[in-house]
């Protein structure tokens, strides 16, 4: 049964990329301690810190698991497109982090925030695990956009516009959470989206062969 399942949907091994990605990402996180380029936009100063956005920020993991599993099971062609868009974009971002080591200097301290709640506790855990480096382009935003694009273009969302709205709405909320939690600059967000949407003309807007 397992053999026949993998023959019908043979591309599950694409997920092995996550092993390479995690090793590469955390290696950079540990080695890039003094980023050469500090990312900042004046708009960042007008975006208030809100710790409660940690929940939509963390929902990225559920979106990733859900969309990947659904597309792998129900629409292999869309799953392949997702893997191509997302993994190639992640690789590009990691290479860029190596060539142009960058970081942020906008995270507030706990004392500056002056609040104590479950959201702040989670924020502190995130800040300890994820240094304020390797931020532009934002992989969080790039991958969220890829998942929304792939899902909305799949057979699962065909003739179901509300599912497309849900997918993009969720991705937008995650992108917004990255700036409200001060995990990213608005510049990181737009650069991450650009890395994702560059695939749209090639994968989804090509003229169909007659």
Automatic annotation (TrEMBL):
The chain crosses the membrane at residues 12-32, 52-74, 81-100, 186-205. The keyword Transmembrane applies. Residues 133-206 form the Phosphatidic acid phosphatase type 2/haloperoxidase domain. Keywords: Membrane, Transmembrane, Transmembrane helix. It holds the Pfam family PAP2. The keyword Membrane applies. This is Phosphatase PAP2 family protein.
